[in-house]
TrEMBL record, chains A, B:
Protein name (record): LacI family DNA-binding transcriptional regulator
A molecular function (GO) term: DNA binding
PROSITE patterns assigned to the protein according to its UniProt record, in alphabetical order: HTH_LACI_2
Chain positions covered by the region annotation Disordered: 1-65
Compositionally biased residues, Polar residues: 1-10
Keywords: DNA-binding, Transcription, Transcription regulation
The keyword Membrane is assigned to this record: no
SUPFAM superfamilies: lambda repressor-like DNA-binding domains, Periplasmic binding protein-like I
Domain HTH lacI-type as annotated: residue spans: 56-112
Amino acid sequence: MPEQHASATGNRGGDDHGTGNSSDTGNGRGDGDGNGTANSGGAPGRDTANRGRTRPTGHDVAGAAGVSQATVSLVLGGKWQGRVSARTAESVRAAARELGYRPNLAARTLRLGRTRTALLVVPALTNDFFATVHRGAVEVAGAHDFGVVLYPSPEGITAAPDPFASARTALDGVIASSMAPEALAALRGEGLPLVMLDSDEGACDATVNVDLADGMRQVVAHLRELGHRRIAHVAADVDSWTFEVRARALRDRLRACGATLLRTERSPLSVAGGLAAATRILATAGKAGAADVPEDRPTALVCDDDLLAVGALKAARRLGLRVPQDVSVTGIDDVALATAVEPELTTVRLPAERVGAAGMQALLSVLEGRPVEAVRLPVRLVARGSTGPCPSPGLHGSP
Amino acid sequence: MPEQHASATGNRGGDDHGTGNSSDTGNGRGDGDGNGTANSGGAPGRDTANRGRTRPTGHDVAGAAGVSQATVSLVLGGKWQGRVSARTAESVRAAARELGYRPNLAARTLRLGRTRTALLVVPALTNDFFATVHRGAVEVAGAHDFGVVLYPSPEGITAAPDPFASARTALDGVIASSMAPEALAALRGEGLPLVMLDSDEGACDATVNVDLADGMRQVVAHLRELGHRRIAHVAADVDSWTFEVRARALRDRLRACGATLLRTERSPLSVAGGLAAATRILATAGKAGAADVPEDRPTALVCDDDLLAVGALKAARRLGLRVPQDVSVTGIDDVALATAVEPELTTVRLPAERVGAAGMQALLSVLEGRPVEAVRLPVRLVARGSTGPCPSPGLHGSP
DNA sequence: CTCCCTCAGTTTTACGTATAACGGCCTTGT
DNA sequence: ACAAGGCCGTTATACGTAAAACTGAGGGAG
């Protein structure tokens, strides 16, 4: 079934898989063409060259079109302006389409020394924030004929990845959402351009950041408006720049408006981690009557991301505390999970797709030698059901 | 880190093990060179022009060790038994380590025609089931010196991916969790080995399935034990083999035990989709008093996956129905989300990691020409809080 | 008429690796 | 003593592509 459908994917390489090999793919492996011209006007040759199942090469296309391989490369590479006649170019394209030619990526890479491929290093795939970042990066990459291969650092956010073994090809650059110092050093040693997401500047060629200091400011303002003054921090147990920024911004903002940071509990970035940390915070007091509002129990938990916040939600419920009546909870990221739980999470929405897009954009700029300015993307608090007015000590216990 | 591993394709002799390979993990990255290599004189190797910043090649190593490039390839490829003396081999390895040599993957691929790389096609990364599948595949692949590159089909489960443009290198095979027919045809046309996960047999070289018919049997048995007789199906709006299996198994099992499949609502595979579908099912009756148990409202919702089930949870809550007192909900997959919500989901746990591992294993078998038998992995119902006894019409409404 | 320039291609080369084909030694067997 | 092999390497080649260098033919300009 010669179902030939031209996929107009916009890029120049036609992706057709026509298998109608009725054409005379002239020359095969035998390079005997050294003598005179391959007579084009001769008898219709038998299909000789298609050896079983190997993919056609540029030479096959050249033979079919009656030109040399160099011409095929010129035409298909798009650089034939003024070097090849329009008719010849068209016949080359026709032959390529007919044979279902696709250039050998390995050979092209070997020749060019570049791959038009970026590696995206993310800490985990279980947080769909990074899936969205990837989507944004792929979108921009695709528009520039670039590819993105994803490397989920398997051991978690602090492990050293082996990017080169993962991407089974040479790389033009790396976009890293988080990297262990030693892996970063290895990368730098390799001389690869590196764009860091949500990381400190320095030791990389460009950064794309999300304005989490402002995000924390919005969180604190929101909670202060609701009357909260005693706040705890469910922090990520990760030594990473972003999380330091969050902690510092939270501390500074709370101090600036006269609220108290009661305590900070660190835990791994997962629902289970948030559950454990929030339990440690909430269970230390008010055991007798959970509905009481003891002085040493915070009325709001600010969590470093949505996974932790969902864990905090569970912890509160297990301890018999209602959210948001007894305790408010906030997250960061606004992943799908945030609206899947009940109550829905008040959280800081990060423009994940734009992060990925800006990261890829920055990498492209670096590769082209253009100067790149540090990107800082704005964030926005999304108030939902997990935050509410601060419970007043007297009003609650007596119905 | 240049973990050079002897690739033993175990062609026939197959005595691959015992390669006391050089575990040069974390070799001195500090030796970045700073011109380090004092090219040993006296060797036939001539100019070893270290051109500034380019990566060292096999020729550079050869020059440094005073041998030919062929010997370098022999030694580093592990095939030097009886062809190179132990002392020479060691000096080659030392030179490679010193220079930080890493073989050029593109050149190797071009030469060998194989890449030891598999493509894993998954429908979406927002469902962390597939992240776990990926982990399983990577684990097995790594043990065989294979790589796995991930291709998230961006347009959802039915879109046609372009795997070849995605994986920026040639591929040895494909493991596909779901593919549109035209993409599958393209793959077959390319002659690539293909392992399908949770798909129909036929048109591929091997399949790895999860016993979802049995899973549905367990779900129905569980609900029947709790007394449920009127059941609705929140189905995936996807024309895919697995989902057909689920639907048929549910229908057959319900009929076999005398229960009724009240209706089926199809929706996209997401929390929002589940919310919409379950709302359509639950809102059609009992508007006046939600706590009533009208005859046309199901007492249990069986959902095609956990995302849908979480959406159903939300729908019930929004309609004022309690889970599980008023309505029970079940999912499939047992992803992290299942225990993040409240109540926790009763669901069918699928061995995601084993699926990925078995898929990679099957692909390796196909590549080596060994026969592969279809794999079918067992599943297990995990009863949690989202299912409870069927509400009896009289007992509930009057406090 | 010659010189130079453009057109329309072709030859040739290089990318880095793996391996087939080959060749000097040194040990054996007969 | 001399061919027959092990050792221990080397030289040469092919993989498919991109692009630089080269080749003619035709056509004004001087």
